[in-house]
Amino acid sequence: MTIKTGDTLPEGTLTEFIEIETQGCSLGPNAFKVSELTKGKKIAVFAVPGAFTPTCSAQHVPSYLEHHDALKAKGIDEIWCVAVNDAFVMGAWGRDQKVDGRIRMMADGSGLWTRALGLELDLVERGLGVRSQRYSMVVDNGVVTQLNLENGGGYAVSDAATMLKQL
Fold first, then answer.
1. Which domain holds residue 109?
2. What CATH code is carried by the domain that includes residue 56?
3. Considering the entire predicted model, what is its pTM?
């Protein structure tokens, strides 16, 4: 079953590579429960098939960086980029993209949360394994209030400008 608008997010754990140690977060990969991270927050989530891939690096992440302040002004508390990659790769990609804490680079290393959402993408025949479909969603206190699922490998509705118009 695929997640849809009005659904509560499934439970899951995402990891994030923490660059600077703080109270409760050690340097390196830290695991976070999705339900705890979304409690009481409005989050813009966008997912990509893979870190460092052409469309994701040239368009998807840059669109959320470009519209970061406007999304925050519309009530978004956090912006997450989710990919079926490990936290080390997501951390390196975040440094490469110069996200500087404006986007949380969230790793779904084994794709378990992506599978629970029903949004996995089988790219085994292309040598890429099982990844995530490209999508964006607004999550308000754990409930999906907007879902923009791309058709095939497209990039037409999951960009930040589209989300901004919907808020």
1. 13-166
2. 3.40.30.10
3. 0.92
Annotated catalytic residue, options 14, 34, 51, 56: 56
DSSP per-residue letters across 106-151:
EE-TTSHHHHHHT-EEEEGGGT-EEEE--EEEEEETTEEEEEEEPS
Phi/psi at 64 (nearest 5 deg)? Answer: -75, -30
In a domain? residue 2: no
102/107 Cα distance (integer angstroms): 16
For the question of residue 56 being annotated catalytic, the response is yes
pLDDT in tens, 85-117: 999 999 999 999 999 999 999 999 999 999 999
Residues 115-161 have pLDDT tens digits of 999 999 877 688 676 788 999 999 999 999 999 999 877 899 999 99
Q: How many domains does the chain have?
A: 1
Q: Establish if 76 belongs to a structural domain.
A: yes
